[in-house]
Amino acid sequence: MYKIQHGSRVSRGGSLSANPRRVALAVLRASAEGARPEDVLNRDGVMLSQKDLSLATHIIYTCVRHRSRLDFLIDGKLESAKNTPQTVRIILRMGLAQLLFLTRLAKHVVVSETAELAKKFSPGREGLVNAILRSFIIDMESDSYFPKEIDGRETPLVTRLATLYSYPDWMAERLIGSGGLREARAFMAASNQPVPPTIRVNSRLADRDEFAKTLPFETVPTKFSPWGLLPTGFGGKLRAWPGYDEGLFSIQDEASQITGLLAAGDAEPQNVLDVCAGLGGKTFVILNAFPKARALALDRREDRLKALSLEARRLRLQDSVRVMTGDLTELDFRPRFDLVIVDAPCSGLGVIRRRPDLKWKKCPGDILRDAELQGTFLDSAAKAVLPGGKLIYSVCTVTEEEGPGVAKKFLERNGDFRPDESLLPELAPLVSGPGQLTLLPHRHGTDGFHYSVFRRKD
Prior knowledge:
Layout: E1 2-4, E2 10-12, H1 20-32, H2 37-41, H3 50-65, H4 67-75, H5 86-101, H6 107-121, H7 126-141, H8 157-165, H9 169-179, H10 181-191, E3 199-201, H11 208-212, E4 219-221, E5 228-231, E6 249-251, H12 254-257, H13 259-262, E7 271-274, H14 281-289, E8 294-299, H15 302-314, E9 321-325, E10 337-343, H16 364-382, E11 385-395, H17 404-413, E12 417-419, E13 431-433, E14 436-439, H18 441-444, E15 449-456
Helix pairs in contact: 1-3, 1-5, 3-5, 4-5, 5-6, 5-7, 6-7, 8-9, 9-10, 16-17
């Protein structure tokens, strides 16, 4: 637990002060050290009202989403940007993020509250913070700030795009190279938009349309998934929503829910193996779609499987799933499953709209390492597929190497598998290749996902 103390340190132990900006600062400092923002924000002891929690959350994720854009502007005001302490930079990001993006807040309140943070956590720098933020207010009133400063032709296109949308240069360059400038812009803009969680209704226990009527906010049905609901605006804590304790719904993006449609075929799956089960999202959507199915959920992390088991009990699916701790690459499965799912660890670039911190935690080398590991997982999982059975490979990313590239190499190594092109007609708009689907935030309003579906020859 991170605790705010007077002075400039954030230490472990105790609870966070019930001040939204102090909480935001603590979370952003922890994130800079590698922690997941949501993990710190959700820790016990962060005692904020719903209103203050919402403010802290907005500040945190606005700072993370727009980090390089904010830094570009801040650096233009600092005499020695390289020597600016990290805490001061984070405080300046917080103040500027509120001025630029949280426009309902009174500007004078933002300036005074941000300067107060500097006074407590970087004594002696409050005057600097106050002056810089007031200078930004003047710039904003005269419309003389971003993005005009980087529109000059002397700045490389990749750098301009990366700064405008707040992405690392290498990521912007890769997106432009794979889809072109227009696609890259659309993807980055869509991935910078915060989105509410997508609901998946437990079809064993509830009807989607009837369940939607019980929620305290408006929703619309998802376009492709028959189980999903998209909130048009929501509030309150998840556990307080009607039907949570009864297991009537889960939170799962529509792109992930598609797994249940890909598993459909001439015969319903009976024995399912989920080899990278994690918290069980793919497992549960299969069990919801096919009530007669039984699943074995495998994962290396015992804590995740414990959470999966608790969730299975909440969803009333505990009799349909077993868990097994282990490393897929070290196990030798016999071909006894008619459906095997490999939701492989990946770079996660498709879920940046929900995990904006991933932008700053990944590097180009991660993609190649992930692709190699994904191929190893696929080869190992393939051994468990019965003749005529299905193998579903998915990654929540948009890179060629981790999606189609892995699928192509897998087929070259495994001659007894072929692409499964017998997909449901309603999925046709998502098909990007033989037995392959691609979902993108700017096209489909979902997380970015790649699916490859294989069939083992009889």
